[in-house]
Amino acid sequence: MREALLEDGVPVTAGWFVVGVRDAQWLHNRMRSVCRFGGQGDAHFDDLGVSLYWLPPGKPMSLYHHETGQEDFLVLAGACTLIIAGQERPLVRWDLVHCPPRTPHTIVAAEGQPALVFAVGARKEKGSARYPVDPLAIAHGAGVSDESTTAQDIYASFGKPMSGPAPGMFSGDPGGEGTASRA
Fold first, then answer.
1. pLDDT of residue 175
2. Counting Cβ atoms within 10 Å, is residue 162 exposed (0-12), middle (13-18) or buried (19+)?
């Protein structure tokens, strides 16, 4: 297996690769900043979605939804509220959430502080996401209000995702653990 070619931090050919979070492509809008590691074209991850989400205070990671594949989330920084199967659960750093297939869920950053969430999901069936109406999700700005409102309409209300640099937390060495250069 050859090493994949990276263009602007995105793999564009099949193969193995290493990319730093600071160098990977980030997409930003008023809802969130997301870094998807799956590549494009031949480099697309067909079996597994792997992403980092930087959530502004009080903003959701996604709309309340469920899919045919399992999804798992690890809170790396900040505190959040998990909305899952019509219930709320507080999340703090290092909490892991496991969502079996067809478990409705989303994660919302706590008010007053941003959050960083690592997400992994099985890709079983393209287009399988469903967006049920849920009062808790709606109260957190993370739900569809009725059966006629589409998820696409709500996602569009946050603005078109624009490519940009990694969030500021990745620009320095806040943990004091040092950073190495790949140059």
1. 44
2. exposed
Statement: residue 178 has pLDDT above 50: no
Q: Residue 169's Cα: distance from chain center in Å?
A: 16
Sign of the torsion angle spanned by Cα atoms 54, 59, 62, 66: positive
Q: Taking a C-beta distance cutoff of 8 angstroms, is the pair 138, 146 a contact?
A: no
Q: Is residue 76 pLDDT above 90, yes or no?
A: yes
Is CATH 3.40.605.10 the classification given to domain 6-13+22-163?
A: no
SS3 91: strand
Token reading at 17 = 């690769």
pLDDT at 129: 86
Following CA atoms 97, 102, 104, 107 in sequence, which dihedral angle do they give, to the nearest 10 degrees? 30
Q: Tokens for 32, please give them.
A: 């969130």
pTM assigned to the model:
0.89
pLDDT tens digits for range 118-156:
999 998 877 778 999 999 999 999 999 987 888 888 899
Give, in order, the Cα–Cα distances in Å from 155 to each of 62, 150, 159: 9, 9, 7
DSSP state of 85: T
Taking the C-alpha atoms of residue 155 and residue 33, their distance in angstroms, rounded to an integer, is: 13
The token duo for 137 is: 């999700």
